[in-house]
Amino acid sequence: SIIQPDNWGYKPVHIFAQEGEHWTKSLDNLLVWLSWLGDGRFERARDIVNQRVFRGTQKFLKGIRKSPPQAIVLNGKETHSLDKLSSGEKSLVQLFLRIGTHITRNSILLIDEMDVHLHPKWQHRLLNILKGLLKDHPGLTVIATTHSREILRAFAYEIKEEGLRKGGYIIEKDLD
Predict the structure, then answer these.
(1) What pLDDT does 170 receive?
(2) Integer Cα distance of 67 and 65 in angstroms
(3) Least enclosed by CB within 10 Å: which of 48, 122, 155, 174?
(4) Residue 8 in contact with residue 66, Cβ under 8 Å?
(5) 3-class SS of residue 125
(6) What are phi and psi of 98, to 5 degrees?
(7) Rounded distance, CA 6 to CA 3, Å?
(8) Can you give the pTM of this predicted structure?
């Protein structure tokens, strides 16, 4: 069982949704709990975020501050909290923290409307991160839905990419 460290004085909110007033607290809460578990999940999730989401930037998810309990991002020489990230970065950090926490040898990842609320720049980054994960974890299966023709073209079945097995269906319905 999980026991709250006495010296942190932190009460979890158990809300891990992206939307709403508790977004940054809930993401911090997830990271704090992962850190408390001490079973390697925090480190695995942090590494996926740093290697995938923050790749090519000066940002780096450093760790957890005890007081107040929150995740710390290193940006160049400055540190800041998660709430200073852009909304696209927050969305990707949240998604890949969860993936990093739970990924196993033969995971199935379901993502509903993966492009929702993401700027095209972040949609492309998401696609590249997912493709990298699929190549690095051959047992990983991703099933995703989207309304974006651009994403469909990027994952086109006809385009062969080494290390990726593609399949699926495009379901279109005229709403006229």
Answers:
(1) 64
(2) 6
(3) 174
(4) yes
(5) helix
(6) -65, -40
(7) 9
(8) 0.74
Alpha-carbon gap, residue 26 to 15, rounded angstroms: 5
Cβ pair 51, 36 in contact under 8 A: no
Neighbours of 32 (CB within 10 A): 23
DSSP reduced 3-state for 82: helix
Q: Which two three-digit tokens encode residue 143?
A: 């099933």
The two tokens of residue 58 are 């000066």
Q: Is-contact 85 73, C-beta < 8 A? A: yes
* Interatomic CA distance for residues 80 and 14, integer angstroms: 23
HSE (side-chain half, CA atoms, 13 Å) at 77: 0
User: What is the residue whose two structure tokens read 């399949």?
Assistant: 167
Half-sphere exposure of 160 (CA within 13 A, CB side): 1
* DSSP-derived pairing of the beta strands 141-144 and 108-111: parallel
Mapping DSSP to helix (H, G, I), strand (E, B) and coil, where does residue 130 land? helix
Spatial neighbors of 51 by CB under 8 A, at least 6 apart, are none
Phi-psi region of 105 (alpha: psi -120 to 50; beta: other; left: phi over 0): alpha
Burial (CB < 10 A; 0-12, 13-18, 19+), residue 131, is: middle
